[in-house]
Amino acid sequence: MTFEEPETRVQRYLHQYIPLSAAMGVQVRTATVGHVQLAAPLAPNVNHTETVFGGSAAALATLSAWTLLHLRLEHVGLDARLVIQRSSMEYEKPIPGDFEAVCRFNDDFVWEKFQATLARRGRARMTLRAHLVHLAQRVASFEGDFVALR
């Protein structure tokens, strides 16, 4: 049996089941139940002004939050379909190069409530926040409501 880093496993999963992530060149830098960091190069995500296309920025932010919730559900053995219901982006600066999305989660109370609601009703909603970074500088903010369906 060979050991596979969690980041490698998650990246393979994203590229296989969310093909847009492969087309965008998404790389998984960190993949834990408390912190997900994804990276993408400028080249496949460039727009006509030679900065990151807004749709690519939104997609990477969405993927980071979705991945974090997916990992949390997987970690506790909950099999649920995970979809985004609503999202918003605030673009603070143009992104002229490779960029990253970071999503963190450490609210045990919210997580327990989410799990209990999912068990009781077969569906639960959670709001996650992420931000985009370019050259160690925050360039955009994301907020999304995700729904888990059993």
Work out the helicity level.
Answer: 25-40%
| Unreliable runs | none
User: Approximately how much beta-strand content do the residues carry?
Assistant: 35-45%
At the first level of CATH, the class is: Alpha Beta
Order of helices and strands: HHEEHEEHEE
Strand order across the biggest sheet? 1-2-4-5-6-3
Total of helices: 4
Kindly state the number of beta strands.
6
Mean pLDDT: 96
Could you give the distance between the termini?
32 Å
CATH topology: Thiol Ester Dehydrase, Chain A
Structural class: alpha+beta
CATH architect. name: Roll
Question: What labels describe this entry?
Answer:
6 strands, six-stranded antiparallel sheet, 4 helices, alpha+beta, 150 residues, 35% strand, Thiol Ester Dehydrase, Chain A
